[in-house]
Write a structure and sequence with these properties.
Blueprint lengths: L1 H11 L3 H15 L12 H9 L1
Length: 52
């Protein structure tokens, strides 16, 4: 099981920034009511998500 997780992570990690951007774009497009819960400038928030 752990090897599967590591394998998946290794496939996704190189495109992490792209995936984080897509995540927030999707979330704010489909749930605009949550946008006010996040900072206006999202750079730090995106870094935090990517680091988690």
């Amino acid at each position: 099981m752990i090897s599967r997780l590591q394998s998946s992570f290794n496939l996704l990690a190189p495109r992490g920034e792209e995936r984080v951007n897509r995540f927030y774009t999707h979330m704010f497009t489909h749930h605009p009511e949550v946008r006010s819960m996040f900072p206006e400038v999202m750079a730090e928030q995106k870094r935090k998500l990517l680091a988690s």
